[in-house]
Sequence to fold (421 residues):
Amino acid sequence: MTPAEIAACADGLADLHFLVNAAEPDVVTVARSLAPAIQADFSDRDACLDAVRGMGASVVGTFNDQMCPLAAWLDARLNGHADTEALWGHKDVQRERLRAARLSGVMSNRVSDGSALREFARQAGFPVVVKPTNGSASNEVWLLRQQADVDAFLARSGTGPRQELDDTFAEQFIAGEPWAGPHRADYVSAEIFRPGSGTEPAAPRFVTDRLPSAWPFRETGLVLPSAIEPERQRLLLTTAERALDAVGARKGVFHVEIKTKSPVPEIIELNGRLGGFVARLVRYGTGERLGRLALSCLLGEAQELTLSWDRCALVLLFQAPAAAVAVTRAPTRREIRRLPGVVAVDELSPEGTAVDWRQGTNSAVAWVWLTGDGHDELHERLADLAGFLSDKFTFVDADGREVRDSEWLERVSKSPALENT
Fold:
């Protein structure tokens, strides 16, 4: 959420102050136009603590995944609630706690060097996922399906088999099932709001569907409302609630990613903030502002919110093919906005933009917001939009050859009626 959106959501609810990283001087100018703001060096936690205490703050929160560890540390120092302080930014700790609570059977381990990674792959078996313990948006997330992939990972990361790997976490790959149709991913997220006041069962919660990932795990889109049948959604939400209970995440707003395995879903990871893109999708589909509800949960205040969907909405994060290194042709914003259902185009990479799949979700070359009166219309418009972007964007690999991703386009364009074909 932008500073302006946060300020609008806080109006009449709380006295808002912004803490801005001293390394981002441009942000403080915007923040100070909306609310009192102070700068601090985010690499110096004690300085940040002095700053929030100087503001007279009683609660610290964030809508940014990378800031969750700092916000949790500061909030724990203000309020003494350190239960989840070690979770955010530590995917290895999350998995350990889920296993200890018997909510996960996924093998995992931190790997300090190439030898440790090879040993883990031998014990766990392929495929294996390797990622930073504090990563976000699928940045530097690798899928290793065979020994040759391990060699490629070590070579591409600039690390030999006996040299150190910094904060690297390996775990077994979790395979899921696309319950909402073949054009959807095999995972979802559960958006959970917990005011910590004993009213959690009545607190809003819902499931957000995903479009199929671009290789290996780059997010390509979120869809609301979920098309998964209600009973299955309840199971997914219950699974998310149990995971949050197991790790002590009792107050706040949480974004829990889940693989839709049968019969029991499997947690991918837990996030201590409102899911990215979710608030805006809800606003397009219902007119409601989730940010206000999120802030009320941080304050420990329960608020009722019923989401009545007037239309379906999705955000398409159009990714370059994994082999691509540069954009050689791109459409204009005006061309994209002419397509039926398109309500906004946020990001658009022009010709000449360098691309690298290792940068994850945020390397998408176009961010497009789309709406429809129902799931069928939304899917038809998605197929048209995806086909248009696949035709108008061209990419080349390191050898200058044009590359495309026909497999992903086929999946998002496939009719739900063909699910069992």
Notes: The first helix runs from residue 3 to 10.
